[in-house]
Amino acid sequence: MKQMNERYKILFEPVDIGPKTAKNRFYQVPHAMGAGNDMPNTRAAQRGIKAEGGWSVINTGYCSIHPSSDDRPLPMARLWSEEDIASHVPMVDAVHEHDALAGIEFFHGGAYTANRHTRMPPMSPSGIQQKVSELMDMHLTAPKVMDKKDIKDLIQWHLIATERAIKAGFDIIYCYAGMGFLPYHFLHPTFNNRSDEYGGSLENRSRLMRELITEMKEVAGDRAAIAVRMSTDELLTFKSESSESEAHEFFEINGEFPDLWDIKMSSWFKECPSSRFAESGHMEPYNSFVKKLTSKPVVGVGWFTSPDIMAKQINDGILDFVGAARASIADPFLPNKLKEGREDDIRECIGCNICASCYNQGIPVRCTQNPSMGEEWRRDWHPEKIKSKSSDDSVLIIGGGPAGLEATLSLARRGYSVAIADSEKELGGRINMESKLPGMTSYKRVVDYRVNQINQLNNVDVFLDNTLSPDDVLELGFDHVVTATGSIWKPSIMDEKSAPVLIDKTATIFTPEDVLNGCELKSPVIVFDFDYYYMGGLMAEFIKDLGHEVMIITPFDKVSPWSFNSNEIDDIELRLLEKDIRVLTQHRIITVEDSSVKTIQKVSHEENEIDRGSLVLVGFRKQNDSLYNELNSSEAALKASGIKSLQNIGDSNAPGAVVHAVYAGHLYANTFDQEDTHTSDDFKLEYPVIQ
Hints:
The protein has about 700 residues and is of the alpha/beta class. It has 23 helices and 30 strands. Strand 3, helix 1 (about 40-50) and strand 4 (about 55-65) form a beta-alpha-beta unit.
């Protein structure tokens, strides 16, 4: 039996948080999960899995405490009334079942919230509206200036919510002063220009925080700890007459008031960037000073994926707890695996931010690495357990990309005899290509984890550099056959209805595969991008790094517009600016000449001719489904060969992001031996109780 590595022992020390004790230093910070009060079972199952996996503290996402903080249509949690308590109890019980502490993050958005449903006016210290650039966050109502009664009411709402949270069983209760929310605006000199005791000096601007913490602690007593989640990055830039910065001064004044400090940044985009734009531990400049100014435990985040970096943060005296959201999503069992000396079995987060994108779209959080995430209750999936096989049938998987690898691993874990074949010399499919692009190295973890796990099993045969024909498949004698042969980029522009229009390849027209396979490019290179996601911007960046002059043209308002959901949109724009890549938005290509393209502007319909050398077309991926179609065309041949089922999965069925391919592989492995894979049981829905 493996033993825990000595250098990780510090991560398993207990830590006191006020009247409560966390059994180790693994701390799942509050993070949105796309399941509010309307999905209590989904929320409970997801959080409970993390507690089962060894995390000592499991927090909710943001939880509104009053109708004046209404963030709908985003799926917020709520604690507005006594009736809301019941929706939180299942999560608390699921967390307590595994000897972990349950925390709740109180939220009052102030000027940030539109109150679209409640129609209450937003509130702020000085009536200053927080302007945003994205449509989802825009609202037309300026906030009211809070008077003394409003401040007293705000404190009272926190106290009432504290009592309700304790009734639900929570162990840790958060006061939230970050990301432009109401308590943070009191701290911020841009948004607080009051002249009373709540404005002016930092001591006065932090008065509300002290009153909130003090009175919440009085209500909680020894029943719950009071934590504060706070943004420090902007305060670090504000000068202080008495200290190094206003952030330092704040903790000198207020450092001992709560039971725990949770340090974050003023923007989710800054705090939770994708791995393309930030490295592990990137938050250190914003939290490393806090422990010097308080005796209370400090938790911080920073895309921690390596246990060595986690241990270093503790040993260096930067943090008391390793805070994580994404790492706990990718592998809820990370703490237990470390404790058992199984660090090689950790499913490391790739930093793709698909989890963040799900919340931004109002759906339960999903994960590229962990296909069970968000499906714990709906499908009864578990990240470390899977149902046993129902027969001794054998399965052939054709294609070693993310879908094929996940299907192979999951089927093998069920106990089936599996063979996986791929035409390339190594497993990985599209990942092997895309991980060569700037900032995409971590995506290789999708392959590395699965190949490592497959290599530990004795019921999987791997055949590489092996292109199978339909006749080969029919002759091999497998009971079930799966094609996971991926997709290919097709050279295409788009018509006025945004439909792809295929064009002929020439010596100067290429697709992303061509570029990554080393085609000969000629400057200036035009990248036409009508894909929503990362490939267009990455192509432009990659080609620029090769030394070419590059221009990217897109019909959208921004390059890679869907990447707003994954917190990448601003970083992508900045990267293109830094690399001096010209960008032409709201234009589509209508004709392609030998040395130029003709474009049309989206609104004015003005046409322009732009000179080019090479043209790289990013927008349309076609299923590579010829093998499946040939096999599927002859039911008699399949029956004669003894093949009981034929299935097409992943990109060869429906091209999508890597997360979709992994999910498709996992879904197939779980359901292929069911008579009906689309039963109502597979799609359980939570229904609110109608009073």
